[in-house]
Specification:
Elements lengths: L29 H5 L3 E2 L22 H19 L2 H4 L9 E2 L4 H11 L4 E5 L4 E6 L1 H13 L4 H5 L6 H8 L15 H11 L3 E7 L6 E8 H11 L30 H10 L4 E5 L5 E6 L2 H5 L12 H5 L9 E4 L5 H10 L4 E5 L5 E6 H24 L1
Parallel strand pairs: 1-9, 2-3, 9-10
Antiparallel strand pairs: 3-4, 5-6, 7-8, 10-11
């Protein structure tokens, strides 16, 4: 990453939770795997001096003004910095040719601890989209609907993914991209509009006028860049219960006894990336993530799809860091502090009894800062001007 904290850069492609070779503290028992460590953002929050306090503007409270000032500072920062600014000084980028076998691409992802890779069509010398976990889930769906086609599935190439998508009636592979010199704000809006959690950076060669894949930008990398460089995040002191950020209704859940394929169907049907796992009393005990599917089909073996969720989660690496939780009393300043210190992709919102209240994803946080807060601020200042 090009900011002052060079150590925050990390590897370019997003690691697979539980498959990263660089993780540390191992756990080995079934109980530990079934009941992962819970990490609350307030555990990371340390007292810091506030950058400034806004003067009162009308009927809003000082806390409201601070919140608006913090949100405005973040939006201005995103508009002033480009995607190039987020990239580390050196990194490795893995790009797949569309002629590669799907089975081989899966093994490469696992070996390198990543969950996505840009696609390149060597016949036309063009960018062909981004391969993600969703594409492998589509292959699983196809296999489940056509159990006699295992030999055919093993011969699928990446350029045949569109045929699979048509066969099972799902959205096509992500092809959205952004130029690396465009603002981070533009990259965020492009991701939100396409519901993508990462976006390739594609430049154009001045001499050949051909596309060049520069990198892949993730929501986590953007938010960590903000957390490291924008001190005004400490002004975001309104609790989650008082802001429009997160999902708190119509949540899809499962139990440890739920068949894995039932959860995969939920991921596809509702276009979600995770399903909270609850106990018999409704308490959160784990989260089944889309990336957990990767470890179940490595080597092209699909037998593990018959497992229950509990059995499948036992196949996670001992280095799986656990799930991150927060409550409705937590604030975005502590959320950003957690993002600054830990690789996190979502927060499970729980109450004091660990009962599920909602989900707070990185998409929710990006949308709140780039869309929702801007609308609220515009409405407020329009009222003052009236």
């Amino acid at each position: 990453m090009a900011e002052a904290d060079a150590s925050a850069a990390g590897p370019l492609n997003e690691p697979i939770p539980g498959l990263s070779p660089s993780a540390s503290t191992p756990t080995s028992t079934q109980a530990q795997q079934s009941s992962p460590a819970f990490v609350a953002p307030s555990d990371y929050l340390r007292p810091r001096e506030r950058s400034h306090v806004s003067k009162s503007r009308g009927p809003m409270s000082p806390l409201d003004h601070e919140q608006l000032d913090g949100l405005r500072a973040i939006r201005e920062f995103l508009k002033a910095r480009t995607s190039y600014d987020v990239l580390p000084l050196s990194y490795r980028l893995i790009v797949f040719d569309t002629a590669l076998l799907v089975k081989k691409s899966l093994n490469i992802l696992i070996q390198n601890g990543i969950v996505s890779a840009p696609l390149w069509d060597s016949k036309t010398s063009t960018f062909a989209g981004l391969l993600t976990t969703s594409d492998y889930i589509n292959v699983i769906q196809y296999y489940w609907q056509n159990p006699d086609a295992l030999a055919q599935v093993d011969q699928f190439r990446l350029n045949s993914l569109r045929d699979i998508e048509k066969a099972i009636g799902v959205q096509p592979i992500e092809t959205v991209s952004v130029h690396p010199l465009q603002s981070l704000y533009t990259a965020c809006r492009r991701m939100l509009e396409s519901r993508a959690r990462r976006i390739p950076l594609v430049d154009v060669d001045d001499e050949t006028q051909r596309a060049m894949i520069v990198s892949v930008l993730t929501q986590y990398r953007i938010l960590k860049f903000v957390a490291v460089n924008v001190k005004d995040t400490q002004n975001l002191r309104k609790p989650l219960r008082d802001i429009d950020c997160g999902t708190y209704g119509n949540l899809q859940t499962a139990t440890m006894e739920t068949p894995v394929m039932d959860v995969i169907h939920l991921l596809v049907k509702y276009s979600i990336s995770n399903v909270p796992i609850l106990d018999s009393e409704g308490g959160v005990v784990n989260v089944f993530e889309a990336v957990d599917v990767i470890s179940l089909i490595k080597g092209g073996v699909y037998d593990d799809l018959n497992l229950t969720v509990g059995e499948a989660l036992l196949k996670r690496s001992e280095e799986f860091p656990g799930i991150f939780t927060c409550t409705l009393n937590d604030r975005l300043d502590s959320i950003f502090d957690t993002i600054r210190k830990s690789r996190v992709h979502r927060f499970v919102v729980i109450d004091e009894d660990k009962k599920l209240k909602g989900l707070l994803t990185l998409s929710d946080i990006l949308e709140y800062h780039t869309v929702v807060a801007a609308v609220v601020a515009a409405a407020y200042y329009a009222t003052l001007a009236a």
